[in-house]
Structures are given as C-alpha cells and as structure tokens.
Amino acid sequence: MKKYLIILCILPIISFSQVNKVLKIEEPTINNNIKVPSSTLCRYTREDTYTVNEDFVLFTNCTTQKKLYPDMNSFHIPEDNVENYFALDKDAVYFRGKKIKTNSTDFKIIGFDGSYLDENKKVYWKTKNAVYKNTKKLKVFSDPSTLINLTSIKYNVYFKDDNNVYYKETKIEQADPKTIKNEYYNDFAYDKNNSYLKGEIITYDNEKIIPIGHYNYFRTAKHLLRLNDSVFMNLSQLDVNSFKLLGTKEYRGCYMMDKNHIYLETPTVPLPIKKEKLKNIKVWSGHSRAYYVSDGEHVFFRDHILKGIDAKTFGVLEGSKYFYDKNGVYDGTYRRNTNGVGFRKIPFNYKIPISESSIFLDDYGNVIYEQQACLGHYLEFYFENLTPKEVQLAKESKLNIKKGGNHVIIEKKVLDQEFYSDLLYKNNDKIYFQDQETIADADTFKRVDEKSSIYLFKDIENIYYFKQNKGLIKVEGIDNKTLGIVFDIFLKDKNYIYYYNKKIISSKDISLIGIYKFNGLFCGVGGVPEDFDYYLFKNLEGYWLVKISNKFQENVTIRHLGKKLRNNWKISNQKAKNSCRQNGVYVTTKIKIDHKNNTCNKVKNYYRFYSNGMFIRITATCTTTIWDFIDIINLKNVELSKEEGSIGKYTIENNLIKFSRNDGINFLGKFNKNLTKIQLFDFSDKYGKLGKHTENIEFIKIEGLK
C-alpha cells in the first residue's frame, strides 16, 4: 500500500498541539488503617538499593534494611556497578551495604564468579592498592594497579598483571603473562607454552590444545575437539586437516565444513549439499541468528532451503533482516512453516534487477532501492518518489525517513539537534515531541535530575513529566524555583514532597527510613495478592506510612503514625501466612524450565500466584528464549493491557491456555490437572506455524501453604 509523502526541507512539521495535558497537584487519600503486609519472599526490596538522605544513606535489599553513615560529600554510586551492589565514598567501598575501609581511588569491577542469573555470584573488584572478592581482601594479587581481566567479558575469571596470571584467586605458576590469551571459552586459556582449563594445564593425547576461532572448537596436531561442559570430545568423524569454521569472526561457528560436508552449528547431520559443490560455498550473516549459506545452486537459511530465491544473485544487507536476489528485496524475519521458511517480498516497483549497487540500508533501518524507500518497522509504508538528491543524503546519513501517522515524513537531519529521547528533542531553539512543537522554552529547558528514574523536565516557567506515549505533561501546583527529586522517585519543593500528581507530606526535615517494595509478591488483606509499594517517612510532624500503587500512579494513600514509631503499622508474618493459607494462595520463585535440552534451574525474579483461579503470573528466562505470560486472571477470557494499551487476550478452557496477541502471534499451552505445569506449547502467526516445543514449567509451593 502506497502512502502519501510529506517532504520537509529543513524543519519538521509544526503543530501547536503543544503539551498534551495539564496535571494538577491533588491531595492524597488518608487511611489510618493501612499496614505494611509481610512478604513470604522479600522483607524489603528485591534489589540492592542505596537511598540518599540528608545525613545518612538507607540501604535495603531482600533481607536487610539499615542506615549507613558515609562521608556524605563524597558518597556516590559508581557507573561501573552490577546489580547496584556497590557505593563509594572517599574512605570506603560499600558492598551490599557492608562497609570496607579502603581508599576507593580507581575502583573497578574486574570479574564475576557465577552466572548473571545467580543472585549470590562473587564479585572481583579492585582499587588502586588492593583486590577484593566481595568483602574479602585477596593478598595473592601482587600488583593491583596493573591487574586486568583477560577479556572484556567480566564473567571470565582469568586475570593477569605485569608479572603473573591468575584463575580466580589462584596464581598459575607456569603461565606467561605476555602471551596468555582467553578468547573463546571462559574456562579455557592458552599461552606460548601450555593450555589451561580452569587454571590447570591440560593436554589431549599428550598434545597441546589450541582454539580454532569459536568458543568450543579446538584442535591438536592430530585431533579435532569440541569442548562440552569442561570435557573435550573427539570429533573423529571429521577430517582434521580440512575442517574450518565459516563466516566472519563475529558470526563464526554457525556453519562449519570439512572436505566432505557442511554442517550447521554441530557436526552431526550435514546439510544436503553435494561434495562437488563445496568449492562454491559462500556464507552471509544477517541480524541476530540469521545465517545464510549457498552452494551456488541453492540458498539455505540455517538448514532450510529458501525456495524461489536465485542463488547466483543472492546477497544480504549486512547486519539486517533483509536479503535480496535479482528479483526483489525480502524481509528475512525467521518464520518456520510447513513449506520450510517463510519470508516476505518488499512491494517495491521493481524496474531494474536488484544488485548490491541498487539498494542500501540507511541509519534508521530503512531499505532504499533506486528512488524508493521502505520503512524498516512498517513494510506497508513505502513510496517511490525520492529525488536523487534525497537518495544521496540518505547515503550520507543526512536524511531522516520515518512514519508520521498515515504518512511518511522526510526531513533533513540537523546536526545540532539535542535528543532527550528518540521522540523528544531540541531543534532550532524549539522543543519538539513527535515532530510537533511544544510550549517548552528551549533556552531554559532541562531535565531536573539525570540520575533519577523519573523523566521530569522544567523550564523558566513550567514543570513537565515526560511519557513516551503522551509527550510532555505540564504539572501545576509545585514551586518551580525549589523543585528537586529526592529518593529517586519523589518530587520535592520548599513545602512538600510529591508522587506524580499527589501532594504527600511536608518536606521539612524529611527523611526516608523504610522501603517495602514487594512487586506483588505478598498476600494482602484476605489473602488477595497486592501490587503496592510502601514507604516509611519521618519529618518534622512525625512518622508517615505512604502506600503507592504500581499500576496506577495517582493511587496514593498516606497514614500518620504519630510522633513516636510503634509496632502497629505492619502485618505479622504468621498472620499473613494464615491469610494466604485460608485463601489458597501459593507463591514461588522456583521455576524449572526445560527448553531444547537447556535447563534453567534457577531463574531470577519470576513468580506465580494461584488463588482459586484468581491470579497467575509467569515470566521465565533461558539462554535461548524468553517467555512472558502476564496476568492470567480468573482463568477465562481476559483483555491484557500495558500502559500503551491492549496487547492481546487469554482464553483458558479444559486445561488449555490460548493466548492471541495483537501482533498476530498465537500460543497454545496445556496445563496439567492441578494447574501447576504447562506441558506443551504450539506457536504460530498469520504466516504459518512457528513450531512446536515441549516445555516443562513447574511451580513449587512454599511449605506450609495448602
């Protein structure tokens, strides 16, 4: 479908819709009965958090909440951080709330012992004068100032300084620091003399092992090897002298070949390519896991023949999802169906044969063919009337082609544009959102706090919230001159602190002394899962409990606890458990997922509620895929939505779960009788089946809950 074309020579479209909405500050709800629930999983916050007050820092994580008293003038969170474990002042490093007295100059994290999903992974870090693992000082490292990780991948635990090589905190006496390398496999390293696995010298058949360009393929003088779970397997079925990995260094390892066959990823089942055709082999890499190989007669996407594609003129727009032949340009997004692999032809008006010289990809992912353009994310948005000058500007990265409503907008890029987000920017002394001029004063427009998670802006007259789907929202009722952000998410002026559009309490002598962020992982009153965060404040008037909804920003409730803090503002652990038990609520973070023989036994931050069919949430991550099933409520037809709007519907009937997403993807899963396991998934979209995968997702109940 062709779209109308709007050409802008220098400036974007100007529309004076300005600011979409005015948000007026309102009073919060007062409820003297609210209490902090008791989580069965985390008592405070799921992540490590350092909250800065005027004269102390509040540290919280899942099990700990305490005050720290660092040097407040030099206290800061380092940019080089992990899981927010660290904070620094001039005299100390704080690791997960524990103070380590040391000169923090040249602080740097150098490695992790454990996977990125491991909440208890060990962290190697250093300062100018010492090296530590978590809180323990390691004396084995002789020269901290020159100590480095062998790679930029910090989950590698080989280190070296000017004189020695180390595996974790063990010195490898025989290793040569000048020639040591660790390129492809975290536990494997080699130098001019030896090879090492987990810090120990290793050989195969008394021969030195060296890598051959991929993280788990190696060779000796006589053998070809593959490393699997720290065990070397002899690939005796392959010809060691002719074996090679195909492709660039970045993508090498998808295809491999010897004098007899070519293989995909593992040298087991060869591709159906005749031996005499191996001399014609050529490979290409696209985006993500898109790999192509041709023998001159056929083109394969991974192990599937691309039917109807001319092999002699085949090519790939490097790093993208697009490929081409003499007949057209195609969207090569992976779609498995009964006929092999599906792909879509871009509906250009093809006047001349496609070649490498007639197409290119611009900086925005748009495909340009002759004087036509197709928007990368919107295949239906294309047009044919680019001028030769505009084509040249696109090649020089000086043209911006994008979707604007039902139109395509072309504008020259202005080099002095200042972007606050991809939709909010400053250009020619004006502030634009989605190419529409706003009322903001460009000369004084700035973000209030770059480090805050809130996108709050101000100019000389006004204060604005910014939301990606709504633009600038003017806020009325806060003093502009004394505006600031405290405790990451709260606004503050000379009179009050605020959350979104709610005035909370007086800002006089304000401090935050307690945080309880459960993200729905607790039972509320009557055993109903809640989705609120709770904050305990102290100011000149005494103590305050503030309850904030995670779903509706304007839902804020406060309770004055008095001048003295008593124990009447929490629900006891046992009372919460009894409430959960009576209402049949199960809570778990233990999820086991089996995906193509790749088992994730420990998954972070994923959980489930089940209360008489009331609420289920599943989010599971493996190394190869992510499943995210959100809010299956009442086990019936449910409209799912996020802030941007509806995303699809669930239907559960006879232990079958069907999820139809608005983008055309459909899922089918089967629960067991107790609704504690999903046993099977089918995936399809409007172009055909995406495949069938067997999954075992098991939910483990907490002991003591029925």
Automatic annotation (TrEMBL):
InterPro entries: DKNYY (IPR027375). It holds the Pfam family DKNYY. This is WG repeat-containing protein.
